[in-house]
Design goal:
single chain, alpha/beta, Aspartate Aminotransferase, domain 1, Aspartate Aminotransferase, domain 2, 5-stranded antiparallel sheet, 13 helices, 17% strand, binds pyridoxal-5'-phosphate
Length: 462
């Protein structure tokens, strides 16, 4: 947009000139004073973001980029959705904060809307500030409910940065935080493309992964295990959609040994896979669901645990020993109410399902056929991974497990140069746009990825 004075305007009404100046200052101050997550502080050069709208962000140079990362896979409703912005503004004018021991309309209404969408009888909601603390509390509930201590989680997973959550995590970020005393034991989940079980097909992978889990439990001592924590569809670790029967098999194992099944839906929940919760694809009801991110698209920090009747009953007459000042913060829960309501009214979950089935999935599969650097594409809804390899026959990854590579850096740079902001992890590019993304935006994203994959193809071995 351009004003009568000839100045370019950003969607929020700010002039581009003033946003660029602000961005420049932001970068200088960031480098002087901001300590960033998971990073060697002197080795990073953070991208500045000066504005955002829908499926797009504007970087510090004023470039408009298609956001195929949804930031950290959280802006499910897109950037600056007017109904959510308005709800936060209205709540701020009405009541900014209340202590967790009081009842409040925004929190109660958010709890109702979430409970109505969870499967089974997960009808009580404990609110946290984000995903990691949701996982911490879910594990605490499971330990108190069962009187057991050990927790099982899979390799190739991410559950958050706090102590229990990072120890549950099955990626190298755990290693420096793992002192061998967290009570977490890791197992291999199903992942046919890189099968640990020498499986030939999805059914074999599922059966053998379940047999492995059952054996692990029997060797560890079933009576010592409180919970199994699993992302319904592992996200950061590679969007490995579980094969048919796997999650039902985990449910059956949990029931057999009296183990609590915790489904971590922090990334996969709230429309990302084309359903409210990813576990709905598998017709399984866990005992606890952890959520965050998409619940209000991260407009205000919020997470939580949805609790089954059985586990809620444990704390009916016995205090739950846990809490936090901002549990169910009014600004965050008002944003959740507006987000869930808008997603319902605007058919946003259905849009994610349709885009995945008709545009993004088929488009990525077509790219895989054309580009030999693509080992596999997999996903659901607006939750897709492109697994890049240096050699299709050996499946050698384009970056080693746990790090990046010059080849991956080139691919990411090509995405950005083409106008697309991807989510990248090790040897993978994830195509995870907002659930509101349009068909035209996805087609544009696929064109940019096509060019970036041509760059990946130049790094093939031999
Ligand atoms: N669980 C999963 C599956 C996640 O993807 C994440 C974050 O990416 C978390 C937990 C941690 O959430 P947060 O970063 O809000 O603490």
């Amino acid at each position: 947009m351009t004003t009568s004075l000839g100045q370019d305007l950003l969607p929020n009404g700010q002039t581009l000139e003033s946003a660029l100046a602000e961005g420049k200052t932001a970068y200088t101050l960031d480098r002087a004073h901001v300590f960033h997550s998971w990073s060697a502080q002197n080795r990073i050069s953070p991208m500045t973001i000066i504005a955002a709208e829908g499926s797009h962000v504007w970087d510090g140079a004023g470039n408009r980029l298609l956001d195929f990362s949804s930031q950290l896979v959280n802006t499910n409703i897109g950037h600056q959705h007017p109904k959510v912005v308005e709800a936060i503004q209205a709540q701020a004018a009405k009541l900014c904060t209340v202590a967790p021991q009081h009842a409040n309309h925004a929190r109660s209404e958010a709890a109702r809307l979430i409970a109505e969408r969870t499967p089974g009888d997960l009808n009580k909601i404990f609110f946290t500030n984000g995903g990691a603390d949701a996982v911490e509390h879910a594990v605490r509930m499971a330990r108190l409910h069962t009187g057991r201590r050990k927790v099982l989680a899979r390799y190739r997973s991410y559950h958050g940065g706090t102590d229990t959550a990072i120890n549950l995590t099955g990626d190298p970020r755990r290693w420096p935080n793992d002192h061998g005393s967290s009570g977490v034991i890791h197992f291999h989940g199903p992942f046919l493309y890189r099968s640990q079980f020498h499986a030939a097909d999805e059914q074999q992978e599922s059966e053998r992964a379940l047999e492995h889990l059952d054996q692990l439990i029997r060797f560890e001592g079933p009576d010592s295990i409180a919970a199994i924590v699993l992302e319904s569809v592992p996200g950061t670790a590679g969007i490995m959609v579980p094969p048919p029967g796997y999650l039902a098999g985990v449910r059956e194992i949990c029931d057999r040994y009296g183990i609590v099944f915790i489904a971590d839906e922090v990334m996969a929940g709230f429309g990302r896979t084309g359903r409210w919760f990813a576990i709905e694809h598998f017709d399984v009801v866990p005992d606890l669901i952890t959520f965050a991110k998409g619940v209000n698209s991260g407009y205000v920090p919020l997470g939580g645990v949805a609790i089954s009747g059985k586990i809620a009953a444990t704390f009916a007459d016995r205090p739950y020993p846990g809490g936090l000042t901002y549990s169910g913060h009014p600004l965050a829960t008002a944003a959740a109410v507006a987000t869930i309501t808008a997603m319902e009214q605007e058919g946003i979950v259905e849009n994610a399902a349709r885009i995945g089935a008709e545009v993004l999935g088929p488009g990525l599969r077509a790219l895989a056929e054309r580009h030999p650097s693509v080992g596999e594409v997999r996903g659901l809804g607006v939750f897709w991974a492109i697994e890049l390899v240096a050699d299709r026959a050996t499946r050698a990854p384009l970056a080693p497990y746990g790090s990046s590579s010059p080849a991956m850096d080139d691919v990411i740079a090509a995405c950005k140069a083409g106008g697309l902001l991807p989510f990248a992890n090790f040897n993978r590019i994830h195509a995870v746009p907002p659930c509101t993304v349009s068909e035209a935006e996805v087609r544009r994203g696929l064109e940019i990825l096509d060019t970036a994959l041509t760059v990946a193809d130049t790094h093939l071995a031999g």
